[in-house]
Amino acid sequence: MEYESGARLKPLKEQYGDKITLIGNVPATFALTFGTKEEVIFYTKQCITEAGQGGGYILGAGSDILGTCKLENVKIMIETAKKFGKYPLKF
Predict the structure, then answer these.
(1) Which of 42, 49, 12 is nearest to 27 (CA)?
(2) What is the DSSP letter of 32?
């Protein structure tokens, strides 16, 4: 799901719950390309918080890892997912 297209995890998770699996939504063209470390952590945690509870969510970039994405930011997204995305989720 592309964040940049206006897709948001929270309303879709509320509407479909465990009926579908959601994937993506970390903004590739903003956070992963131009974002600061703090922004990447913010968007990654937001995705986990909004869609991770109860399963049915796969964290990832909105569309894919673009050639313009900073490797450092992609690593930060992965590190944040490892730290905050383990079940059971605790916030």
Answers:
(1) 42
(2) I
CA distance 69 to 79: 16
Alpha-helix runs per DSSP H in 1-91 = 9-16, 33-34, 37-51, 71-84
Q: Does the pTM of the predicted model rise above 0.90? A: yes
CA–CA distance, 50 with 91 (Å, rounded to integer): 11
Tell me how many domains the chain contains: 1
pLDDT tens for 44-71 read: 999 999 999 999 999 999 989 999 999 9
Structural domain that includes position 48: 3-84
The tokens for 39 are 């922004």
